[in-house]
Design a protein that fits this description.
This protein is of the alpha/beta class. Helices cover about 40% and strands about 20% of the residues. The chain binds nicotinamide-adenine-dinucleotide, 3-isopropylmalic acid and manganese (II) ion (MN). Nicotinamide-adenine-dinucleotide binds next to helix 4. Manganese (II) ion binds near residues 220 and 224.
Length: about 325
Amino acid sequence: MRVVCLPGDGIGPEVMASAERVLRALAPDLELETHLLGAAAIRAGGDPLPEETLAACRGAAAVLKAPIGDPEFDAADIRPEQGIMRLRAELDVYANLRPARQGDVDLVIVRELVGGLYFGARGVREDGTVFDTCEYHPRQVERIARRAFELARARGRKLTSVDKANVLDTSRMWRRVVREVAGAYPDVELEDMLVDNAAMQLASAPRQFDVIVTENMFGDILSDLAAAVTGGLGLAPSASLGDSGPGLFEPVHGSAPDIAGRGIANPVAMLRSAALMLEHAFGRTEEARRLEAAVDRALADTPTPDLGGSATTASFTEAVCGALPAGAR
Ligand code: NAD
Ligand code: IPM
Ligand code: MN
């Protein structure tokens, strides 16, 4: 029942305080313990993912993470983002589920999280050329494809695989492997879509999608877009899952340095990430639904400034707690 909380940077500690307040009310038996990640960890000891944080995460039932990142380190060699990338790789949480829902739009982006451009060979050649490489092994594609098909089977039975197969060899292999995996899922309708078209379709006709599966960087970009067309970045949660070991639950958004420290960050993405944790890490689906319902209620009653309202992070959090069923406040 141990949950490692990583408050991170910028608005991270503000939205994490909200999640801790709500979890203490809703699921008081969970043991929440806090560790350093990102810029906070670099400042404390020079390493964005300290060994003791990694060890605590490995031994936990789940990791609940707020955003990391600080402009102070943008040009540094050691950066906060390296901490989260390494944590994802160490936990091998290759399947990043990013749901986006509003009105009759209800889709999930399944983003491959530990391969591709983020983790391929990189460097500088003698002539000064800088390179990052998009690399995938077919096994990496196969396991994310299986996850996506399983999810599609449990939902609307439609899977859109997004790639750039008209240009990239990794995408051509991706497409071939996804087609092979599709053989085991005849009940799921599979379509391939090029990523540039997918961006256009997401912006203009998002209702057509059920489950989207795509490689790491395409998924990064498309998930911000999906968030924007379903109410905003402040609302979008994610769950990163492997085959075993703890899952990692974090908002899609970043540390929002432009509003950090003002107490006005929208905690919904963080709270919905906590709901995904209750569901996926603990199988506590009832509590997850109660939390989601309370968040929806508070959103309707008293939204934060990013949504045109005037609630603070703290007052919104109290509204969520007030909307939880009596006995869980
Ligand atoms: P961002 O997501 O932090 O912010 C983009 C815009 O959305 C900003 O105007 C911000 O104020 C707004 N916003 C985001 N979340 C919000 C919330 N909860 N409530 C209200 N408004 C919100 O993206 P950015 O500015 O490009 O990145 C800032 C830093 O965050 C960078 O260092 C980046 O690397 C990092 N980052 C971290 C994660 C993560 O930890 N998973 C994710 C994305 C970006
Ligand atoms: C996200 C973020 C991260 C990513 C950064 C901070 C490394 O943008 O979780 O979407 O690109 O994966
Ligand atoms: Mn991103």
